[in-house]
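We modelled the chain as a single entity of 340 amino acids. Its sequence is:
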Amino acid sequence: MKVRSFHFKILLRSALGVVILLYPQILQAVDITPFYTRNQSPLVQIFGLPAIGNASLLPDGKADARVMVDLANNYVDDSNPRESILLDGESTRLTLDFRYGIARGFECGVEIPYLFLNGGFLDGFIESYHSAFGFPQGGRDQAPRSRFLYRYQRDGLQRLKIDTSSSGLGDIRLNGGWQLHRGENKPERAAALRGSLKLPTGDSDQLHGSGSIDFSLWITAGDDWKLTSGHLALFGAAGIMALTEGKVLRDQQRNFVGFGGLGVGWSPFRRIAFKIQTDAHTSLYQDSELREVNAASAQLTVGGTLAFSDRTTLDIGVVEDIIVKTSPDVVFHFALRHRF
């Protein structure tokens, strides 16, 4: 009941966002920044893949706090003569992200996630959505609703099985950044070198963490142009992640992963921005012929930003799997941000 209550609160906040959109006079200016999204697949979200972040770092002495909610629905059932996998369930990832400008051109921060893994409540909605638009169900309509079961078998051995709902702390990340470039006459044109260190604080037996220490290093860049109606922003990033040996599918885990993202946003008014963003990464596992385990992945996030003031904004996005079976069918992303 507590989990369903938590989900109800999420939907209530979403409805509030729609009401504000219909009555925009209470909103003010908005910056166009990347979505803080990443792959929420049960076998991927345990690792340290970072959100690409903003190309402009915080000024010295300024702080930035985000509260993010990612509600993901997973269903895949696949097999070959050697392997079989079933990922059926929902995850809610509640994340607190705090960043601080420690000196001119330098930034540090910490990201603390808390996870809820269970059968969820979105199965019926997604089946109806697929049916209404003629999308394939992929066996979803034949599976029990609200079931929670993650299972992977290989060479006759069960490598992974989790069928009990759980909640708990995820893997904490320490973040940092260095401003490589910021235009003197055009500060919106910027580039930054960012880094992230993920620590094994989550329970890997429950897929709250991987058991590995992951270090990511990437460059993110962006630019912004004034238009007749509002302004347009382009942003992107590319980097690499190094992983120590984890505890989930240990003998199949890779030690290096490439990742990146590209997005564009348009703000036609001072109070709202529309954004679309693609995030991608190479495979985190090997020695498998299943796409759910060993394949590159890409996700598409569509949504926007609402500005409640010049310091407080709300991101709302819907994430779809571009490369099917490598990420959840759908993720609802919310990020409330405040600058201090």
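As a brief sanity check on the tokenised model: The chain has one domain: 2-339. The domain at 2-339 is CATH 2.40.160.40 (Porin).
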